[in-house]
Write a structure and sequence with these properties.
The structure is a single chain. By secondary structure, this protein is α/β, with parallel strands linked by helices. The protein has 22 helices and 21 strands. The protein has a 7-stranded parallel beta sheet with strand order 11-12-10-13-14-9-15, with helices on both faces. Strands 16-21-20-17-19-18 form a 6-stranded parallel beta sheet, sandwiched between helices. Helix 6 crosses helix 21 and helix 17 packs antiparallel against helix 19. The radius of gyration is 29 Å and the shape is globular. The protein starts with 15 loop residues before the first helix and ends with a helix. The protein binds adenosine-5'-diphosphate and magnesium ion. Magnesium ion binds next to helix 9.
Length: 676
């Protein structure tokens, strides 16, 4: 029997090689393929150029009246040009980098061309040549790459739709579909891939967005329901005296805010309901020590605690600082990451299983199959926005009756938070430890880079260390590395041998990254050129200046996080943003970061000022990676979908209602397979 979970390998034309290539695009199952949606639609109906505006995409039919000439320049670049007579007028047509099209063009012949119209030059920049038999008026354009070409995807989707359209059942309950005038799943898929008009596609997308948000909201509601059941075994019966002696021996007094959230957490732990709490606090607000208190409480009640961080550098740093903080307390720490050697792992796993180790610090490695815990009572997730819902659950499910504390420095606006983190209680640390000097941030254009470099030199001469950050400009690690490398070479040329320059980027092995970070911490080099690998939690008190190149390529929340790497010591610290934003919005964004050190304010600005379709900032703030829906642009759909999910799950028997059967089946299924 066929099912949407069938591998795409069942389709004709998908062999081993193509399968691998499709997998790389995230397409594994028929369902993945059918929900691999077009990026845009090209309107292929013939246009009258007399009414077309400059820059418009047009389809035109005309006669080739000059012999097409093909010029090559560079290694892979080419230009194919000729003249085309359309309705008695003559236009220049050029195709860039598609030399093979020359074969399809003949003098005097009629062709249909799709391209961009340039009104001032009476020119068309061609994108494709259409066959005479063009049957669709709207051409779906899919994200594709060299290995899986546009046409391949199109054909596979057509094939899959034909073979599977009979089993596209509706997951959304009928009453909701009627209430919001949503299309059936079958029609949604059909109209998104093969729309009869732009309006049909838009309507189908509306349903797809609702569906995506609704299923997400259902998942959150179900999580909430499972964890709100009274569970006496989750109780952490800690020793208040021990907690007191721990806080008293710290080198600093807790801020009022830290005390407040500490009490909220300890109250949760005592309660016979699993804790499910989100701890929000700006960078540098001191979340780690609060986590330490919760960890000590769990351990003192005889249970294990684990803390998971998104990177090895950070896990290692936590392991070191906990070792220091817990010196003299009965805490036995193990560090488990992807970099842990097989030998060390083998020695470690039994002592985790036996309970001899009672604090396990690590990365994603913490929830791997081979890792068995003795009695995990508390799971702490640091920088929780870097993990998916399922990853957070995966760690929690390593124990039974396990309390969860998720920590994040990226504040997201309340409207979104209610939905995204609807299953959690929230604690906020809203003050920084006393005596911190606010980081001074300035924005300069790249023309002023020299003056920034002089400033950097002065800081170096006074004994400080410097971060230099380069962004992810392209979606390719190779390009980013080149970028970082170029800047690395430039800084070496300027500052060496007086000062040493180090490099940290995503392409380095984890061991290399750790070494670079450790060397920087130990002041073996004074300048660290890095990609965003350093974004999270890294603590080097002697680094007081950060220089960020192409700062306008980052989200505001991310810039705020990045700059949080400085300002951790006694000295005044600085952040210099180098950026040449292309428009007013870009300028406003830079000004916002330069003028505010308030993470909440910046996350709100991020939403207000972000360009259309640019959701990088949001992704960096922990938004799940929605496929079609946009949590900001489609906020009203999100809100409604969330309300509906809530009202369905109010009734604990919801799964038994006939109209919910398919929904329940779907959710049960995805809960067991996804690991995003
Ligand atoms: P974050 O909330 O960004 O994770 P950390 O927990 O790393 O921040 O804390 C940043 C620094 O502030 C650490 O060096 C920590 O020791 C220090 N710190 C934490 N709480 C206090 C406090 N109450 N007073 C002074 N320093 C503190
Ligand atoms: Mg931290």
């Amino acid at each position: 029997m066929s099912s949407l979970t069938d591998s795409v390998a069942v389709l004709k034309g998908v062999g081993e090689k193509r399968l691998t290539a499709l997998n790389k695009l995230g397409i594994h199952t028929i369902n993945d393929l059918l929900t691999y949606f077009p990026r845009r639609y090209d309107d292929l109906s013939l246009k009258d150029l007399g009414t077309a505006v400059d820059g418009q995409k047009v389809t035109v039919k005309g006669q080739v009246i000059t012999t097409p000439t093909l010029n090559f320049f560079g290694r892979k670049k080419s230009r194919l040009s000729f003249r085309l007579k359309i309705d008695g007028n003559i236009y220049n047509v050029t195709f860039f980098n598609q030399p093979w099209l020359k074969k399809q063009l003949e003098l005097e012949a009629e062709v249909i061309i799709f391209g961009t119209f340039n009104l001032n030059h009476n020119q068309i920049q061609g994108m494709k040549i259409l066959n005479g038999d063009k049957s669709d008026t709207y051409d779906s354009i899919y994200p594709s790459n060299k290995e899986v070409k546009q046409n391949t995807i199109k054909q596979l989707i057509q094939l899959a739709f034909k073979q599977y359209e009979n089993i596209l059942v509706d997951i959304i309950p009928t009453s909701l579909r009627q209430k919001y005038r949503l299309e059936s799943f079958h029609d949604t898929i059909k109209n998104i891939h093969f729309p009869s008009s732009p309006i049909a596609a838009k309507r189908a997308f509306r349903t797809a967005k609702f569906m995506e948000f609704f299923l997400f909201a259902m998942k959150i509601q179900l999580l909430k329901a499972t964890h709100r059941q009274p569970d006496p075994k989750s109780k952490i019966i800690y020793d208040p005296k021990l907690i007191k002696s721990f806080t008293q021996q710290l080198p600093f007094a807790l801020t009022q805010s830290q005390q407040k959230v500490m009490n909220e957490i300890l109250t949760d732990l005592k309660n016979p309901i699993e804790m499910n709490r989100l701890l929000q606090g700006d960078v540098g607000s001191g979340k780690t020590v609060v986590a330490a208190i919760a960890i000590l409480a769990a351990i003192s009640s005889g249970r294990q605690a684990a803390i998971m961080a998104p990177t090895e550098i950070l896990a290692e740093q936590h392991s070191n600082s906990f070792a220091k903080m817990f010196a003299g307390f009965d805490v036995n720490i193990a560090l488990l990451t992807g970099a842990t050697s097989a030998l060390a792992r083998r020695a470690m796993l039994p002592s985790i299983q036996s309970g001899e180790v009672n604090l396990i610090v690590g990365t994603h490695a913490l929830f791997q199959d081979q890792v068995d815990y003795h009695n995990l009572g508390l799971a702490v997730i640091d920088e929780q926005h870097r993990f998916g819902v399922n990853q957070r659950q995966a760690l929690r499910q390593k124990g039974t009756s396990t309390n969860m504390l998720a920590m994040t420095a990226t504040p997201i606006p309340r409207t979104l938070a209610i939905t995204m983190y609807g299953d959690m209680d929230v604690s906020v640390i809203d003050e920084l430890p006393k005596g911190r000097k606010p980081i001074k941030t300035t924005w300069i254009t790249s023309a002023k880079t020299e003056s920034a470099l002089r400033f950097v030199k002065k800081q170096l001469e006074s004994g400080s260390q410097i971060y230099v950050v380069t962004p992810l400009i392209e979606e390719s690690e190779a390009v980013d590395m080149k970028n970082a490398l170029a800047i690395f070479e430039r800084f070496k040329a300027i500052f060496e041998p007086q000062f040493t320059v180090g490099l940290l980027h995503g392409r380095m092995s984890n061991q290399e990254k750790d070494e670079a970070m450790t060397d920087f911490k130990e002041n073996k080099f004074q300048v660290l050129v890095a990609t965003t690998v350093i974004e999270v939690g890294v603590d080097v008190a002697n680094a007081n200046t950060m220089l960020i190149f192409d700062a306008d390529h980052f989200g505001l929340a991310q810039l705020h996080q990045l700059r949080g790497r400085v300002g951790r010591g006694e000295k005044q610290s600085y952040c210099i943003l180098i950026a040449d934003p292309r428009n007013e919005i870009g300028k406003k964004r830079m000004k916002a970061v330069a003028s505010s050190t308030d993470g909440f304010f910046l996350s709100q600005k991020d939403l207000e000022l972000r360009g259309q379709g640019d959701i990088t900032g949001l992704k960096q703030s922990g938004m799940p990676d929605f496929k079609v829906a946009d949590p900001v642009g489609d906020l009203n759909i999100l809100t409604v979908a969330n309300q509906e999910a809530q009202s369905i799950t109010v009734n604990s028997d919801w799964q038994k209602k006939p109209e919910n059967v398919q929904l329940a089946k779907y959710l049960k299924y995805t809960q067991t397979i996804t690991t995003d």
